[in-house]
Amino acid sequence: MITEPSLLELAADEFRDAAMMNAVIDGLQRCLPDLPEAVRQERTHMTYTLMVHFCAQRERAAAPAWEATAAGLIDAIVGLLRAPVTDVTGWNVTAASVRTALPNTGGPPASSATTPRIRTPSGSNASR
């Protein structure tokens, strides 16, 4: 469902006014105040995709271990949301581009001689 753009739009319309969904999103935003909006949107989309496809994969098993699946997903999603943010200045990344599947661009433009910087959740920078 998440990979089909028209169904993604339909799901977004369905959940836009869902009180529980909005409470979860608001809570995540409060927990990740330093995460740039475009990055948050991209990682939210990654999270939805991970949950849908991983659960579908587990569902194909004869006897899925749902408790273990939930624990693994929670760990993975926490890691995804708290991961450092790479400074992609000059990589031609826009908020619009993260709402769709990003093509593999191979990284920064060839003319960029700078070392990518990552920003940890606390806001400090480190070389990659």
Describe the structure.
With 128 residues, the chain is mainly alpha-helical. The protein has one domain. It has five helices and three strands. It has helices at 5-15, 19-31, 37-59, 66-82, 95-98; strands at 85-86, 117-119, 125-127. Strands 1-2-3 form a three-stranded antiparallel sheet, with no helix packed on it. Helix 3 (37-59) packs antiparallel against helix 4. The longest helix has 23 residues, at 37-59. Residues 99-118 and 124-128 have low confidence and may be disordered. It comes from Actinoplanes sandaracinus. Residues 100-128 are annotated as: Disordered.
Could you give the order of the helices and strands? HHHHEHEE
How large a portion of the residues is in β-strands, by DSSP E? 5-15%
How many domains, as an integer?
1
Globally, the shape reads globular
Distance between the termini: 34 Å
Low-confidence stretches: 99-118, 124-128
Q: What is the spatial order of strands in the main beta sheet?
A: 1-2-3
The number of strands is 3
Radius of gyration: 17 Å
> How would you state the average pLDDT, rounded?
74
Helix content: 40-55%
Which secondary-structure class do the elements indicate? mainly alpha
- Number of discrete helical segments: 5
Largest sheet: 3 strands, antiparallel
Short descriptors:
128 residues, mainly alpha, three-stranded antiparallel sheet, 5 helices, globular, disordered C terminus
Give a topology summary.
Layout: H1 5-15, H2 19-31, H3 37-59, H4 66-82, E1 85-86, H5 95-98, E2 117-119, E3 125-127
Antiparallel strand pairs: 1-2, 2-3
Helix pairs in contact: 3-4
